[in-house]
Amino acid sequence: FEILNLHHISLTVFEYNPRAIRAYEKVGFQLEGIQRQFLNRDGKRWDMQRMGILKEEWSALYQKE
């Protein structure tokens, strides 16, 4: 956020990867939306989740005073 002067960072992750989802949540990313049944993998349809974090949310978690 600081070096590139970003305001928002987002990512996508598939619901079949709960370990990644937990890791992203742990560092502050929040669920922003779901594209339902986005991917057909091994005969099953999976949702794609969009997650994001804003600069002020990141700052509240990681900026040292």
Describe the protein:
The structure is a single chain. The chain is an alpha+beta fold. Helix content is 26%, strand content 46%. Strands 1-3-2 form a 3-stranded antiparallel β-sheet. Strand 2 and strand 3 (44-54) form a beta hairpin. The mean pLDDT is 95.
Overall shape: elongated
Going across the major beta sheet, what is the strand order? 1-3-2
Return residue spans where pLDDT drops below 50 for at least 5 consecutive residues: none
Q: Assign a percent range to the helix content.
A: 25-40%
The radius of gyration over CA amounts to 14 Å
- Given helix and strand content, the structural type is alpha+beta
The total count of helices amounts to 2
What is the percentage of strand-forming residues?
over 45%
Largest sheet: 3 strands, antiparallel
Query: Average pLDDT value?
Result: 95
Distance between the ends: 17 Å
Q: Would you report the number of β strands?
A: 3
Give helix and strand order, one letter per element, not per position. EHEEH
Secondary-structure topology with pairs:
Elements lengths: L7 E7 L3 H9 L3 E12 L2 E11 H8 L3
Antiparallel strand pairs: 1-3, 2-3
